[in-house]
Amino acid sequence: MMRNHPRIIGFLSQALNHEYGAVQQYLTQASLCTLWGLEDWAENFHKESREELGHADLLSQRLLLMGIAPTGGHLRPPRPGRDLLEMVSHDTLLERAAVDLYAEAEAFALRLRDPEAAALFARLRGEEEDHLRHLQEQCAALEGRA
Ligand SMILES: [Fe+2]
Ligand SMILES: [Fe+2]
What we know:
Blueprint: H1 6-35, H2 39-65, H3 84-111, H4 115-145
Helix pairs in contact: 1-2, 1-3, 3-4
């Protein structure tokens, strides 16, 4: 039996909004890189956007199981950046916000003794931490190149 605590629903909805916002940001960056002729970077940002779409899918499934229609709501405007280093710096902020959101949601679900929600938030936190590490490495490599 799925529990419908209002704060869990709030975290799921906030997370879904975040994930669609991240899809939009990464896709915009992929499009820009294609226009700049940076095919490898375009593929890299496409891959990121697909991963965030996968997160949106997991959150949507969870909301549907709770009998709630998933909606991304009003998305924050993308911050693509004017060059690669600025792109990766903006994405680092995006991923840090995701890690913080999922850590807070996971802690709340654990306090509520809702192990299924806690497991979902923990999985997403772990994957956002991987994104963050990957971006920090890219940032360091780009800074070394500059
Ligand atoms: Fe994500
Ligand atoms: Fe991410």
